[in-house]
């Protein structure tokens, strides 16, 4: 299970790193949603790169309008004094959705954190790339139970691989966690859950940040029911939601 989820995660990162231009996005539908834990209401639109595809969920407080103007799929540097047209329309509340078992419900939601610095390996240059909270319903019972988040290197704050938090209770506390590197199933190590998320046994890596308490985890997990209520309202039927990551 662990190696399967880390392999899926690497596919999500690959899809994100090779995302096409947002100009090719097509909106499929939009639903009005209410986030139960906070009572906030807004809109959630599904969009994709092919006709009929729901590859992304985009959340906005006002009606979504033209999805091509609401998100950037890859980080770019902006001169805040002279922002590009439409900059004020952008939302950071979006993510990639997947239906791994093909039952029509989202069971893997990669919700954007934003651009993060990726720890260089070997003679690689420092780079910035989007990373995600990956909310997972690993046993397809309709409830989120696991989370993959970037692993942060204590020494320099760079992202090095990811951490999988497993068996997450309603309170946001994981029962176990592990780290996964870039090179496949041999590269998975046990970690220990802490009051602030998860740490590697040698303390060199933490999950997402060292301030990731159960309440924050529970909040991230609560995005999956929101996405699925919108999917139901939009009447999404297989195979609208992709079963796995791909290059478009
Ligand atoms: Ca599913
Ligand atoms: Ca579950």
Task: Describe the protein.
With 248 residues, this protein is of the alpha+beta class. The chain has one domain (2-78, 86-233). It is built from 3 helices and 12 strands, in the order H-E-E-E-E-E-E-E-E-E-E-E-E-H-H. Strands 1, 2, 3, 4, 5, 6, 7, 8, 9, 10, 11 and 12 form a 12-stranded antiparallel β-sheet that branches. It starts with a helix and ends in a 15-residue tail after the last helix. One calcium ion (CA) is lined by residues 99-101, 103, 105, 107, 140.
List low-pLDDT spans: none
Bound small molecules, deduplicated: calcium ion
Rg from Cα: 18 Å
The global form is globular
**Tally of domains:** 1
Helix-strand category: alpha+beta
Q: Can you summarize the main beta sheet? A: 12 strands, antiparallel
Mean pLDDT: 94
Helix content: 10-25%
Tally of individual helices: 3
The end-to-end span amounts to 26 Å
SSE run: HEEEEEEEEEEEEHH
Instruction: Give the percentage of residues in beta strands.
Output: 25-35%
Topology (elements, then pairings):
Blueprint: H1 2-17, E1 26-35, E2 40-48, E3 56-60, E4 94-98, E5 108-118, E6 127-136, E7 146-153, E8 159-166, E9 176-180, E10 188-194, E11 197-200, E12 205-207, H2 214-221, H3 223-233
Antiparallel strand pairs: 1-2, 2-3, 3-4, 4-5, 5-6, 6-7, 7-8, 7-12, 8-9, 9-10, 10-11
Summarize it.
The chain is of the alpha+beta class and 248 residues long.
